[in-house]
Amino acid sequence: MNSKLFSNIARFIVLVFLQVLILNNVNLAGYINPHLYVLFILLYPFAGNQSLFLFLSFLLGLSVDIFEDSGGINAAACLVAAFVRPNLLRFSFGISYDHQNIRLAATPFGAKLSYVFLMVLIHHFVLFSLEMFSLNHILLILKKTLFSSLFTVVLTLLSLSLFSKKYR
Prior knowledge:
The structure is a single chain. 71% of the residues lie in helices and 0% in strands. By secondary structure, it is mainly alpha-helical. Keywords: Cell membrane, Cell shape, Membrane, Transmembrane, Transmembrane helix.
């Protein structure tokens, strides 16, 4: 239990600093910005305390907001992503999620891709919608959401394959 707690705390801190020190400075073509800190929400233990998870997700977004001075949009996007996570897990993994026996490293690639893509897409749509906060810019919101989501999903899947323990 202690190692899981330590790994979650370390993941939280490393992802916040990676996001604010490096990834926030990546801006491809003017609208592609990776948000890898969503990885914390994706990897939080599935059987963990949900109230604590919602609080930590909010704290994750708030931490990024403090460094970015962005007024709470990351906190709101993280909270929405954390809130819909059980439904996305049930959609992507089906009965395996209901029995709490999911190991992300051992899941089929299609299920893992749908889970990661949908989570990132929801997070980014909320983030960019709150950033623009105008229906006049809906095409820009959709464009930023799509391209940033694709870039973030690629980085997330690379991170998962590089840093996860191989399941046998």
